[in-house]
C-alpha cells in the first residue's frame, strides 16, 4: 500500500544523513494520507521532531486514528510529564500498560509521575512492577529507594539504593 511505503521512506530518512528534508516529507505525506490508516505513523514521526503543544497535538491526532498505539501513548506521557501534567501522563502510561504490560520503562515512567504527585506508595508499586519484569533495572531500584525514603522507610531505601542491596534482592 502506498501509505506504508511512504512511512517506510520516512523512517529511512529519519536514519539517514538527509534529515533536513524529513519535516517537509512528513508534511507532504500527511497532506496526501490524512485520516488513512498509516497516517498515525507519520504523525508520530513528526511528534518526535517537534516539542511542546505541536507534538502533543500530533500525538493526539495519531491516537484518534489508532487509539491502541502504545508508542504514541508513551511519548505523549513523557511530554505531558515534562509539562507537569502528571495526571495526564499517568493516564497515558496506564493506557500504554494495558496494551504493553511487559515494558518495564512505562512502569518506571508511571512511578516518576506518581512520585511527582507525592503518591509515594503507588510509586513504590509501579517501580516494583518494573523490577519484577526486569530485575537488573537499576533506575527502578534507585527510584523505588527514593520513594521509600520519602515514606521514611529507610531500611528499604538503603536496600534499593545500594549495589549490595540490589544484588541481594535479585537473587
Structural write-up:
With 171 residues, this protein is mainly α. It is 78% helix and 0% strand. The protein contains eleven helices and no strands. The protein has helices at 2-15, 22-33, 39-49, 52-65, 70-82, 86-99, 104-116, 120-133, 138-150, 154-161, 163-169. It is elongated. The model has no long low-confidence stretch (mean pLDDT 93).
Keywords:
171 residues; 78% helix; mainly alpha
Topology, element by element:
Layout: H1 2-15, H2 22-33, H3 39-49, H4 52-65, H5 70-82, H6 86-99, H7 104-116, H8 120-133, H9 138-150, H10 154-161, H11 163-169
Compact overview of the structure:
With 171 residues, this protein is mostly helical.
Question: How would you sum up the global shape?
Answer: elongated
**Distinct helical segment count:** 11
Main sheet? none
- Give start-end ranges of low-pLDDT stretches: none
Q: Provide the helix percentage.
A: over 70%
Give the helix/strand class.
mainly alpha
- β content, as a range? under 5%
Order of helices and strands: HHHHHHHHHHH
CA gyration radius, whole angstroms: 19 Å
Overall average pLDDT: 93
Amino acid at each position: 500500500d502506498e501509505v506504508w511505503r511512504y512511512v517506510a521512506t520516512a523512517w529511512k530518512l529519519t536514519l539517514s544523513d538527509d534529515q533536513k528534508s524529513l519535516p517537509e516529507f512528513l508534511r507532504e505525506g500527511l497532506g496526501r494520507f490524512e485520516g488513512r490508516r498509516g497516517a498515525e505513523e507519520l504523525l508520530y514521526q513528526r511528534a518526535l521532531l517537534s516539542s511542546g503543544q505541536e507534538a502533543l497535538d500530533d500525538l493526539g491526532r495519531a491516537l484518534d486514528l489508532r487509539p491502541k498505539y502504545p508508542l504514541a501513548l508513551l511519548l505523549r506521557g513523557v511530554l505531558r510529564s515534562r509539562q507537569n501534567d502528571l495526571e495526564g501522563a499517568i493516564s497515558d502510561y496506564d493506557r500504554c500498560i494495558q496494551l504493553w504490560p511487559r515494558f518495564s520503562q512505562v512502569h518506571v515512567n508511571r512511578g516518576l509521575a506518581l512520585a511527582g504527585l507525592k503518591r509515594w506508595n503507588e510509586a513504590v508499586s509501579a517501580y516494583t512492577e518494573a523490577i519484577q519484569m526486569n530485575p537488573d533495572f537499576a533506575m527502578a531500584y534507585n527510584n523505588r529507594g527514593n520513594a521509600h525514603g520519602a515514606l521514611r522507610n529507610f531500611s528499604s531505601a538503603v536496600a534499593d539504593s545500594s549495589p549490595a542491596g540490589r544484588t541481594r534482592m535479585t537473587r
